[in-house]
Write a structure and sequence with these properties.
It contains eight helices and 30 strands. The protein is mainly beta and 533 residues long. A five-stranded antiparallel beta sheet has the order 3-2-1-4-5.
């Protein structure tokens, strides 16, 4: 049937008529206009061009290069063509297949897609500032929106098919700008939303370590969402840096600890995939048991000792020695030391274990009550001097305190260093023993009888005598009336002129005549007067 129609067309043409195809178009296109999309029929295929009949008075030639698959062309094929001009210098119509495709493609694309829509396209070539992408028509992909992190060379994009987002359509200029970067970002957001919808606390998920910081590691989960694996959730044991556990690029399985759909934050855990070693500490580390551990950290108040991976106990500085007082645990211990300790207390709920070192030795203070009794005379060495007294070493680790008030019956002592020297051996009397609080009180003046009963008799009231100023205070003058015996002249018992002050009128060493007002044997005080002389 087709062959008969073709033969009839050839016969009509041979007889000077026109083909049915040409006649049909000539009848339907009475007034064709430049810029129109017309139907054309291939009537000739040459090495350089294709001859097309549009039913007009003349045919047009389209360059073979405008056809994407020229080898598949056949005479009689119908194609869409764009009329550029009705006649050229050779009297032929000027046609374009590519422009027709662009025009048809443009109408199809803008009728189907708008700004913000997602479309698939193939990167066709590189141009200044970016790439051309075939999405049905040619669209421009700026290099800044190529989103080519996975491509070392932008040229590798050419020939690849990707998903793009239409960011701008200019209908007047028939321009379309697309973005692969925005398409990837949108897809990630959609993936995140889907992931959050299915995410559950306690779920174990797979991920890849993308970045490591001092405080943890950022893990990319399936779907492109990023979660934080904090350093404290990496291991039950102590670690100083996340790189001890994970490395960038590691594929790991982590547990979802918490997440916030609004902020998009996810907290992850690695150690939670295994049982906490603290679950069995009360059974493994009974109070009073002795065991070995490793010193892993030193702080001013003590040392942290690792008993097993993930379980540490605190050895407080006060539990280092029964007798010696350490200012810092590093005076006795160093990180890495393997030591034997005793368990003092276990708090499973708060994950705390108290340890002791001194408990491994006998407590010397338990024998103090038997060795030192009140009234006993003892000898020792001055170990330390303070504002309030002198510490006397009675034996290794056992000190007694001589308070400044127990040095002399009569002399006012400003500081123990005025009487004692460090390292000096002295004799003292035991005044009190408190083994529970590890305290022994000593006295020096108690080595001799209290002289104040004699002083009361020796210096009755109204006695006038010579004295020497030993100290000028804002409330009065201290006066030495005998060796190691002082009295106080209160300021109210001193006559001062108008504007006159004690410190300008009297100097240490001045000789004065005073009268005894009162001697208090209980308070060990003598009240003197200058006025009454």
């Amino acid at each position: 049937m087709v062959e008969k129609e073709e033969l009839q067309d050839e016969k009509n043409v041979a007889e000077g008529g026109m083909s049915d195809f040409a006649r049909l178009y000539q009848e339907s296109i009475i007034d064709i206009k430049e810029g129109q999309i017309l139907k054309g029929k291939i009537i000739g295929i040459n090495p350089k061009d294709v001859v097309v009949d549009i039913g007009y008075k003349s045919e047009g030639a389209i360059p073979l290069s405008e056809f994407t698959d020229p080898e598949s062309l056949k005479i009689g094929d119908e194609i869409d063509v764009y009329l550029e001009s009705k006649e050229d210098e050779n009297g032929m119509v000027v046609l374009s297949k590519q422009k027709a495709e662009k025009a048809v493609g443009w109408e199809m694309v803008i009728s189907k897609y708008g700004e913000g829509d997602i479309v698939d396209g193939k990167v066709s070539k590189k141009v200044k500032g970016g790439f051309m992408v075939n999405v049905g028509v040619e669209a421009f992909l700026p290099a800044s929106l190529a989103g080519s992190k996975t491509f070392g060379n932008l040229n590798q994009l050419i020939g690849q098919v990707f998903t793009f987002k239409i960011v701008k359509i200019n209908k007047a200029r028939r321009n379309i700008v697309v973005s692969r970067k925005d398409a990837i970002s949108q897809q990630r957001e959609e993936d995140k939303k889907k992931l959050f919808e299915t995410l559950q606390k306690g779920a174990v998920v797979a991920g890849i370590v993308r970045n490591i910081t001092d405080f943890g590691a950022f893990v990319e989960l399936d779907g492109g969402i990023i979660g934080l694996l904090h350093i404290t959730d990496m291991s039950w044991g102590r670690i100083s840096h996340p790189s001890e556990i994970v490395a960038i690029g590691d594929k790991i399985e982590v547990m979802v600890l918490d997440f916030d759909t609004i902020s998009g934050k996810i907290s992850l855990g690695l150690k939670q995939r295994t049982q906490s070693p603290w679950e069995a500490v009360d059974a493994k580390y009974a109070v009073g048991s002795k065991l070995k551990g490793t010193v892993v950290n030193l702080v001013p108040y003590g040392a942290f000792v690792e008993l097993e991976k993930g379980v540490e106990g605190l050895l407080h500085i006060s539990e280092l020695s029964w007798t010696k007082k350490y200012a810092n645990p590093n005076e006795l211990l160093a990180i890495g030391d393997r030591i034997e300790i005793q368990v003092l207390d276990v708090d499973k709920q708060n994950k705390k274990i108290s340890l002791g070192l001194k408990q491994l030795e006998a407590n010397p203070w338990l024998e103090v009550d038997n060795k030192y009794t009140v009234g006993q005379k003892v000898k020792g060495k001055v170990r330390n001097l303070t504002d309030y007294g002198a510490f006397i070493e009675l034996e290794d680790g056992i000190d007694g305190l001589v308070h400044v008030s127990d040095i002399s019956w009569t002399k006012r002592i400003g500081h123990p260093k005025d009487v004692f020297n460090k390292g000096e051996k002295i004799e003292a009397v035991v005044l009190a023993v408190d083994s529970a609080n590890r305290r022994i009180s000593l006295g020096i003046k108690q080595l001799t009888p209290d002289p104040w009963d004699e002083i009361v008799v020796k210096y009755p009231s109204e006695t006038v005598m010579d004295g020497k100023v030993t100290k000028v205070a804002n409330f009065g003058l201290f006066i030495e009336i005998a060796s190691d015996l002082e009295g106080l002249v209160h300021i109210s018992e001193i006559t001062l002129g108008e504007g006159e002050k004690l410190e300008t009128k009297f100097n240490v060493g001045d000789s004065v005549k005073v009268k005894v007002l009162k001697v208090d044997s209980l308070q060990h005080k003598i009240a003197l007067s200058l006025k009454a002389v």
